[in-house]
User: Which sequence fits this backbone?
């Protein structure tokens, strides 16, 4: 049994010790915001924080994560209010969205260490691949997130958190039978 803290809660995984952290998070903990990209550590889609450092969860086993503090995209901000998330939306640095959770995790770890990174520092610190090619907007969004985090700038609205339960459950009126007309 492997124990760690995931998103502030103690977790024990009843999995083989050599199970990649990625699969423990996705399959056992149902934290599917951490994405599987390449499985080889090249793309960064699976990035999580391990003791505050951005690491590729496909390359770390649950045995290596034993006793450590893990933060996933779900633990960073459930309501998408984190400055990196807000700035990426404001700068239109999200296209298909597949790489977004990993980029957000990498960028937030960078900003925790360096609140005002230069363009060169951002490019050196963000190894994530984005097939949509949002890199120029990504640099601007990370710099903007740094300003937002330091309260030097305000983004007027957080992105919508998704479909509310009431909207998802509303009734759809029945269609009339054309033969009745």
Assistant:
């Amino acid at each position: 049994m492997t124990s760690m803290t995931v998103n502030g809660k103690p977790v024990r995984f009843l999995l083989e010790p050599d199970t990649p952290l990625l699969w423990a998070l996705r399959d056992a903990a149902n934290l599917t915001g951490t994405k599987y990209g390449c499985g080889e550590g090249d793309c960064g889609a699976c990035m999580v924080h391990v003791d505050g450092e951005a690491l590729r969860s496909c390359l770390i086993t649950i045995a290596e994560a034993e006793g450590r503090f893990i933060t996933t995209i779900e633990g960073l901000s459930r309501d998408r209010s984190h400055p990196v998330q807000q700035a990426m939306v404001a700068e239109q640095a999200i296209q298909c969205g597949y790489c977004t959770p990993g980029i957000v995790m990498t960028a937030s770890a960078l900003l925790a260490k360096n609140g005002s990174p230069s363009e060169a520092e951002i490019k050196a610190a963000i190894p994530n691949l984005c097939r949509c090619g949002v890199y120029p907007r990504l640099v601007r969004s990370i710099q903007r997130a740094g300003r937002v985090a330091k309260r030097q700038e305000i983004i007027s609205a957080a992105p919508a958190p998704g479909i509310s339960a009431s909207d998802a459950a509303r009734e759809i009126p029945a269609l009339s039978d054309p033969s009745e007309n």
Summary: Residues 83-149 form a domain with the DNA polymerase; domain 1 fold (CATH 1.10.150.120).
